[in-house]
Amino acid sequence: MAGLPCPASVAALALALGIGGCSAPEPSRPQPAFYADLAQPGAALDPVTASEIINAYRAQGGLAPLLWDERLQRLAESEARRLAERGDLSDGGGVGISAALTAAGYAPQAVKRSVTGGYHSFADAFSGWRGAPGHDAVLKARDGRRFAISAIAKPGSRHRVYWVMLVSPK
Questions:
Q1: Is 92 left (phi over 0), alpha (psi -120 to 50) or beta?
Q2: How far apart are CA 46 and CA 36, in angstroms?
């Protein structure tokens, strides 16, 4: 049978072309910000992703969207950093954050707050917040108009990532 390739040649060609029943490896895709490991050095929470996810969740309950607020962000970051430095989540009755909110022009009693730790990604934190009535109440604050979230990593500490979410009516 002159002119026809032998079966071994066809198999070798198929193997060389990567069509021998095996698919080529998938090209690597960037990980969505929702799943970024915030316990890694240099990792940062993406406020756009956080806003989209939280506002979609609020919309399901007929609640107004929250706007990301840079002033609240600085306060949330300062509080998360303080908790990370101490290595625990107790806030001493909220005295430190209350004074900071007052100094920034917020009424501390009006600002809803969630403090938590141990979640390495926003996906995990958000899931945990929805499943805990106190944290879920902050996500669903009816009077909420502005918000901020901070996640501060402290490798080697008990929680590794310290989270503070603030929701304000103004």
A1: left
A2: 9
Token output for 50:
């956080």
pLDDT in tens, 93-152: 556 788 999 999 999 999 999 999 999 999 999 999 999 999 999 999 999 999 999 999
DSSP sequence for 131-147: HSHHHHHHHT-TT--EE
The separation between the first and the last C-alpha atoms of the chain, rounded to the nearest angstrom, is 85
Q: Are 73 and 50 in contact (CB under 8 A)?
A: no
Q: Which amino acid is at 109?
A: Q
**pLDDT tens digit string along 55-100?**
999 999 999 999 999 999 999 999 999 999 887 777 655 567 889 9
Per-residue 3-state assignment (H helix, E strand, C coil) for 36-79: CCCCCCCCCCCHHHHHHHHHHHHHHCCCCCCEECHHHHHHHHHH
Numbers of helices and strands, H then E, in the chain: 6, 4
- Judged by DSSP in three states, 14 sits in helix
**Predicted pLDDT at 19:** 45
What are the φ and ψ backbone dihedral angles of 146, each rounded to 5 degrees?
A: -135, 155
